[in-house]
């Protein structure tokens, strides 16, 4: 350990720290001496060397071996001094930043498993090549990357810094999509901002750790997955790389562990977001002392804390992009100026950048989701770019509100919180204010939510209940013992507390019951009172007196039939039943009427209770058409012309009642059975020819399905003979068959990320409960995605595609076969919502779906070689 004298320390203004070290002198006496941290400028080196020294332990200054180790100095007289590391006689010149990652934080935890992903390098701008060459060389010298041979590969995607230099970044999107999850420990920025705002610290200080990820070494078996290729040489990272989905969580945990070991005075709170640290407290000296303690600890570990990134202690600091003024969250003036002086966007990309910036500050904009709706509509897939006066007005209003409410808070511990809620046609909004004897009126935050498709069809009462619940839940998250006063476009909370039931016929009854239960019990959680009516400028015009009125209706002309008993008059009594079975994705039905009732409880309820209400309300429930509307209308017309009773009969009742006997009789008549006829096959062939023409010259599968549905004793071979012998079919096949057409050019007029082909593989040998694999290929780049699923269903298809395109750009077109797992309603509805065009290919024609078909073979081969765990 190095030593400096007390005189040298006083001359250099070096103050000893609290830490003391015991040492044994040459006289054998054990002594205790304080330490201090200093920076040394050593011969031939371009950078200061930081080290810890003993102050006053000797009468002369001594360089310890911790500083000398590994260094070589050549003196003017020609002699060479080498200290146990480099004996080649050359001067050891340290490159700039070479010492940045010598001392490291703890070894990274074992990373979650990742499937092998290998993505070829994209074309790069010419300027990036020269800019990245030096970066790669520097990282290799410092040991952050090393050369390797790995089955993994991710493309390099350099980013140009504002100062003109280039940053090496790797596109790990494919690797991230194929990596198992890891529980995230990083707080959401919005939640962290809310915590700091609620604490209202008068004094704050900030620190920023430079190159935090590069301070954490990877375990040897985890390095291969981060491989990338540059100029024909494959490299991988030895340290935690940027762009990996779990890097923030791992880095956050490593630094959090270090911070937890640093003692802090009572009343001091330390906030951390990955590599950014904020210290808040009531006393500036305590904040300063805690800040210096953290700095000393981190510097000892070899972490770089740039002085330019340190602030405070002060009453105004910038943290996470927010300007904090005595606990109030404010938008930095330079940020607001850039937003105000920005030009109107001229493309989708520019609009996305503008909305991204405004979205970060959405808490400062009342009704952000409602005002910005026209702008977000312009970003929808398939929407042509047309910037109109409506969009310009919406953008101007967002910026004006941002300027008006530049500062939010602070949150006072005793002043009551005022909540103003409301809703428009497209969304709900909630404004939180605080005013009272301890301070002026000030906004705390503004929140808003767009209504989804289901919520858009809610009645005004349901929208009001949903908006009120959202407002109460939001204030519940930020309050700290304050009382709450809530106001809205109509008084709703007191009505719910009094037990006023919602009107009959309201949709979404389970949701309404849930909202009622929450609002009725809210007083047990926090004191809340309902103030006077407050109508915001975004509120939809409604008549609150009609909210709890039962919608117009009229009594149903259909009456419920009395129970059928022995001796009852059976004239005009009908029993009905039906049966069906499914074959080759098609249903076959048979219905019989034998003096009968509906046989289905839902029909009985709808006919006797709801049909009048539906008729008055245009056969809709909250703008949703009633299922089988035409059938209900026809039933209502019959009932209006003559007396009609409908009753329900218990199915498969084996009792001796007269109703059960009639029901069993009609049930037996509805059973679908094949006709057992012994006849000449030639006769059946003639009958199939007639059916083939009647069906429009469809194929053998359709012909066989229709014949079996009629109970005919036919075979697939016979159907094939009929289709083959058809002269019209032969002519059409020779002319129009895909094999006779010119070769397809699947990639013609396609751009990168425009089109994907997808297909299912399976069933395979089960692995981890999974038997199928959904495979997708981007037709231009060949980027491949694969997800193991339990079954080939529409729900699994949608879930997998959402996972893929959470990290990849949404395509404009998806191509597949017409299997039920792709043609299902849930899949097609999702594609329609995302603006994706879905193209179905000709079955059994691999040329159309050939790109993904070739990939299927590779995936199958991989699954066979990893039978015990291919799902990973």
Automatic annotation (TrEMBL):
Gene Ontology biological process: DNA metabolic process
Against Pfam families, the record matches this protein to: RNase_H, RT_RNaseH_2, rve, RVT_1
Q: Which InterPro entries match?
A: DNA/RNA_pol_sf (IPR043502), Integrase_cat-core (IPR001584), Rev_trsase/Diguanyl_cyclase (IPR043128), RNaseH-like_sf (IPR012337), RNaseH_domain (IPR002156), RNaseH_sf (IPR036397), RT_dom (IPR000477), RT_RNaseH_2 (IPR041577)
Using the record's annotation, list all stretches that form the Reverse transcriptase domain: 140-324
Signal peptide location: none
Q: What class of enzyme is it?
A: hydrolase
SUPFAM superfamilies to which the protein is assigned, alphabetical: DNA/RNA polymerases, Ribonuclease H-like
Q: Which GO terms describe its molecular function?
A: RNA-DNA hybrid ribonuclease activity
Query: EC?
Result: 3.1.26.4
According to the entry, every stretch annotated as the Integrase catalytic domain falls at 738-872
PANTHER family registered for this protein in UniProt: POL PROTEIN, RIBONUCLEASE H
What's the family? Belongs to the beta type-B retroviral polymerase family. HERV class-II K(HML-2) pol subfamily.
Instruction: Return the protein name.
Output: ribonuclease H
